[in-house]
Structure prediction request, 389 residues.
Amino acid sequence: MSTTAFRPTSRATPDPAPRAHRPGPLRRAAPALLAYVAVRATGLLVLTVWAHRRGHGVWPILATRWDADWYLGIADHGYATGLGTAYNANNMAFFPLHPLLIKAVSAVAPGSPASTGLCIAVVASLLAAWGIFAVGDLLHGRRVGVLLTVLWAAYPVGLVQWMGYTESLFTACAAWSLYAVLTGRWLWAATGAVLAGLTRPTGVAVAAAVTVTALLALRRRPFPPRALAAAVLAPLGWCGYVGWVGLRTGRWDGYFAVQRLWRNELDGGAGTLRWMRDLLLRDPKPHLFLVLVTGVLLASTVLFALSVADRQPLPLLVFTGVLLAIVLTSDGVYFPRARFLLPAFPLLLPLALHLTRASPRCRALTLTTAAAASAYFGAYIPLVWSSAP
Prediction:
């Protein structure tokens, strides 16, 4: 598929410079990357000051707690050899790319595996920010690309982007895979989808975006053979790991049995609605973080509707739609769901487009407020909520 298949209908800020005089890709993305680092560094500073006053160290929070500890354990000791019966104990629920990178890089790099895992997440976050900018720039121009990147940096649980978690790595794979689809680079798109499928369970959303778009491209003439290859290859990362877990546990539904031991099953959204009802209508003093999670879920639903109304390109809608459906219809634990939606950056495109039409004062106030709120919750979550984000 050629790049004209997803040519934006209107660019917010057309770039009149001749192609020969335009900056290179990294230089063009530099303002977005600098803004991204500024927002996340502000959050890190607030966390550091707050943690120091409470007598906590910042490095353990970022590098060794909660899911980061599971990935470090996999990198050090490998996966469980069977299904078992204990709840919340089988590490095959965690996908392999991040721990494999930790093991490979820490074998040749100085520092502990925990430091390596944290560095991988930070580097991946920069690659993710670059990919997010590239998508926004391609569709609507440089200003929208920068605003989209800043909004993603100021996500309410943006702290996770600089933790030893997989969200940044997954977002990087997803963003560049989607960019490759939008520009007709089918094999690169499939590669990103395979890597995403080896990173998180929701990698199936990236695979769906690539496969559906590629299959629709097959209707065109001349027949694009690379699109057919991408449609076949894209799900192999996710399917490969799920199949491996099945072989390791000795049952075809081994991975889903592992997820049931973590109390994760699809229930059509009944559990999500029950949580929302109890928090908003029955709990006289709901925890602030759970209210935040609920707000993110509701806002994401509205933003998806706006994305459909804006007629976003199909691969973006498929990716965010499948990801949102998985998060909303799961009966698993409730509190990490805002984090699960962190990679759904296309949902922020309607906000970025709206900000391009706002006055400079309104735009600055909105972005400053979002960054300040993200910094506050980035410290509140590990120090007050005191559990996994």
